[in-house]
Amino acid sequence: MTDGRASHILIVEDEPKLAAVLEAYLHLDGFSTTTLDDGHSVMPFIRSTPPALMLLDLMLPGRNGMDICRELRQFSALPVIILTARIDEIDRLLGLEIGADDYVCKPFSPREVVARVKAILRRATPAAVAMDGSTQAPRGLEVDEQFHHALLDGKELKLTPLELRLLALLMKSPGRIFSRDYLLSHLYADHRVVTDRTIDSHIKNLRRKLQGARPDSEPIASVYGVGYRLEI
């Protein structure tokens, strides 16, 4: 079934029983689906019929999920949830750092997968799934790195230079989870040696300033064991 792009989910999974279960649960929630069982067919399908979101297995015949995700991020911000039986932390972070929005470890509950799909699509904007990879700025948030100026809901945010760079980085993909290592490597051009606690401290200060402009909000979410994502 391939009608209705806004609610169309691409399932890339070579285990037929697992793919069928995912299809069944997604259909119950009103989604349409297409299932592909090899890596080589993914890019041609996405370019011709871009879905709303892709569930992507890492271990596929023909081409693995990591390579697919890397190529996808060169031209599209299509939301991606990785399905994987590889549970070590390095693989989890790598999956997120190449541009995946979330991951689910096998074995998993199909209900959990559907819940994750819904959560990501709620955060997504029309621009977030555009084929040119463009994204829409988070609601009420304005950042000008050149003139060191940031506003939230019209209120000025008095940010340090590093906090401003951090916010600008998170803004590039609202809703995407950024690992600490990724944030550190992109914040410090001189590649100085810093610890995870450094980024935690900057996030804490940035979150406090955002909440000062928008009380009772959770502008930056912590994803335990992985990193952070902007939820404005």
Number of helices: 8
At the fold tier of CATH, the topology name of the largest domain is Rossmann fold
CATH architecture of the largest domain: 3-Layer(aba) Sandwich
- End-to-end CA span: 33 Å
Number of strands: 11
CATH class of the largest domain: Alpha Beta
Largest sheet: 5 strands, parallel
CATH superfamily of the largest domain: Response regulator
Secondary-structure element order, as H and E? Answer: EHEHEHEHEHEEEHEHHEE
Q: Radius of gyration, Cα only, in angstroms? A: 18 Å
Record the strand order, biggest sheet.
2-1-3-4-5
Write down the domain tally. Answer: 2
Average pLDDT over all residues: 81
- Runs in which pLDDT lies below 50 for 5 or more consecutive residues are 125-136
Percent of residues in beta strands: 15-25%
Q: Can you tell me the overall shape?
A: elongated
- What structural class do you assign from the helix and strand content? alpha/beta
Helix content: 25-40%
